[in-house]
Amino acid sequence: MKSTSAYRLYGASHSLYTGKARCYLRNQGLPYVELSTWHPDFAERILPQIGRGIIPVLETPDGQVIQDTVDIIDHLEAQGVPWPAYPQTPLQRVVAVIIEYYGGQAMLKHAMHYRWSYRAEQEAFLRCAFTLGSGAQLAEQIMGRMNSYLPRLGVNADSIPQIESSFLQLLDRLEQHFAEWPYLLGTQPSIADYGLIGPMFAHLGRDPVPLAIMQRRAPRVHRWVERMTAPGLDVVEYPESEPAFVANDDLPSTLIPVLQHIAEEIFPELTDKLAFLDAWVAELQPADGTPVTEKPQVRQVGMIQTRFRGATIEVGVEPYLLYILQRATDTLLGLQEPERARVQGRLAELGLADAVRLGRQWRVGRRHNIEVWEGVAPTQ
Hints:
Blueprint: E1 7-11, H1 16-27, E2 32-36, H2 40-50, E3 57-59, E4 65-67, H3 69-79, H4 90-106, H5 108-116, H6 123-131, H7 136-148, H8 160-178, H9 191-202, H10 208-217, H11 219-228, H12 256-266, H13 269-284, E5 302-308, E6 311-317, H14 320-333, H15 339-350, E7 363-367, E8 370-374
Parallel strand pairs: 1-2
Antiparallel strand pairs: 1-3, 3-4, 5-6, 7-8
Helix pairs in contact: 1-9, 4-9, 4-12, 4-14, 6-7, 8-11, 8-12, 10-11
């Protein structure tokens, strides 16, 4: 590929994960061109390199192809950016990764429920989004497939009232936080903001039904969505703030209720998923470097029954969740006592300690843009 000065982001306007990458590029002021997956280059050059139809994909000016928002952001961080997304202090860094997990994984229930359970109320908007570039017939197939994912995400008749109550509570708690701070961990965006903006923009802050709820109930949250999707740091309401994370590895007091909300949301589902993965690996002992699933386009290795805010749900288990959370584990592993004990104690106070469990001997890594098992002991 001939080198250009701009990155090329392959994605879609209504894509949760494209939104996460797009916000990062915009906030950092990085030059980029966004292209649809219907662009001929995607089929001709990109798909053969990533091995599955998935977005977003970033193509760098020198021709590197990077899939997945974690890898995209980490690659750009390594190049040097104006506002680094990872706090340098351990508690903030661990908490930021947990919030990133919450936004990109646990909030799929909220995002997909409000998009597809209210399809009739926002049909014209959704059909326009999915038809652009693909045509009506293919759009109908894609929309039907997306709609079919709801049960595997834990969206059912029992959980829907809990999902909607959860969304309202989250809006209320974030509203109080953004009355004091422009971003989650201070006056510059972190990986926590980029993780949360995925569902809060592409679905909940853009689709007509949840957007109306957000605008009416939590205008400061909606303003944060605008801020995250603007170029640079759009903090006009906070004129005296210098870009920084809260000092001394502290957490904003207004963020504590948000973190308590997250703790109530992700357990016991996360605990049950991790237990399933531990048992799955112990039984099958996949060879080091083996893709986590038989087919790259399949993300889940099984189903479990668990609970969401008291409602019984059945959800798919994706090894990818560890790819996100193990960065928080790595932060803890890199600490000496008593610093590690301090961070673990604070996580326990917040109800989040079980999200960062030490002692696991295997990992989920990535090779050639595909998730793989790493460190699994060979079969004796």
